[in-house]
Amino acid sequence: MKEIIMIIRPQNLEDVKEIIESINCGGMTISTVMGCGSQKGNVKGFNEIKGFKTTINLLPKIKVEVVVDDKDVETLIMSVREHLVTDHVGDGKIFVRNIEQAVRIRTGERGVKAL
Ligand SMILES: Nc1ncnc2c1ncn2[C@@H]1O[C@H](COP(=O)(O)OP(=O)(O)OP(=O)(O)O)[C@@H](O)[C@H]1O
Ligand SMILES: [Mg+2]
């Protein structure tokens, strides 16, 4: 199992929910977060701020966490990229980490069956 962590633009949440639903995984966790990437939250671009001291600016983002079967990881990544990619910075980022175990508390099911 892998956890896919996606930091996306708030307006893309509905698209990502539909993509997750389409791969039929068990659930998801959504949070509102603040963040910045390589532009440090500067929306105007590097050149306009060159030579000036810049401060980090945190922008509102949505964090989507979903634990999936290994076989669904690439499908999810490719589909999210396909739907969310634009030619602008800030499209978001996807992180993947290993998940050791999952347990459905109600039934005691474990592993992929618990997702
Ligand atoms: N290295 C990182 N560690 C933790 N969170 C990150 C990291 N990079 C990006 N994020 C999160 O992802 C959000 C979106 O990042 P963003 O898409 O701007 O990445 P980027 O590397 O700047 O790419 P781009 O050049 O396309 O903008 C950030 O606001 C932040 O919340
Ligand atoms: Mg960026």
TrEMBL record:
It comes from the Bacteria. One of its GO terms (biological process) is regulation of nitrogen utilization. GO terms for molecular function: ATP binding; enzyme regulator activity. Signal peptide: none annotated. InterPro entries: N-reg_PII, N-reg_PII-like_a/b, N-reg_PII/ATP_PRibTrfase_C, N-reg_PII_CS. One of its GO terms (cellular component) is cytosol. Transmembrane segments: none annotated. Belongs to the P(II) protein family. This is Nitrogen regulatory protein P-II family. The lineage of its organism: Bacteria, Bacillati, Bacillota, Clostridia, Eubacteriales.
